[in-house]
Amino acid sequence: MQKRLLFDSPLLKVTISRLCQQLIEVHEDFSQSVIIGMQPRGIYLAQRVKAELENLVGTDIHLGYLDTTFHRDDFRRRDEPITPSQTKIPFLIENKNVILVDDVLFTGRTVRAALDAMNTFGRPAKVELLVLIDRLYSRHIPVEATYVGRKVNTIQSQKVLVELDEKQKEDHIWLITKKE
Q: Entry's PANTHER family (predicted)?
């Protein structure tokens, strides 16, 4: 197995800062914007984006967590049941600008499921997608991220491993290639 480092802690911090600057350019004051992290791993990135944005703009921004388990198109096709995560969105998203956050964009199917799951909480005015890694040439459905930390050319057999330390001591994001 080969591992190639895509992000370490300092580069990740710079990338999150850049993504937040891009968000600030588009969203005037964030009073009509909310951040929703996709379970399970997108929530850690969403928490960091929220903290950085609040530090930069000086206002509170709503943060929620969205689980897409029961909205997935492969939910009933798996041999073993998927363990769902918690959905925690303590606000309505009706007419809000939703910034949907996930760690890796791969086939696009999870994003499609998230769009379905969000309907429970209202109809947003706009939905934007922020991802740390965009795995190019792997979409099954036409989904594109609005904000991207890094675009990576990958093949089907490769995997992106995201290791975010909640204490923000050491972060690593790897591209893993299994040897044939």
A: BIFUNCTIONAL PROTEIN PYRR (PTHR11608:SF0)
What DSSP character marks residue 88? Answer: B
| Beta carbons of 138 and 145 less than 8 angstroms apart | no
| CA–CA dist 19, 10 (Å, integer) | 14
- Within the chain, which residues score under 50 in pLDDT? none
12 part of a folded domain: no
Q: Is residue 59 part of a domain?
A: yes
Which amino acid belongs to residue 109?
R
The helix (run of H) or strand (run of E) holding residue 143 is none
pLDDT of residue 165: 78
Question: Where residue 42 sits, what CATH number does that domain have?
Answer: 3.40.50.2020
107-142 pLDDT, tens digit each: 999 999 999 999 889 999 999 999 999 999 889 999
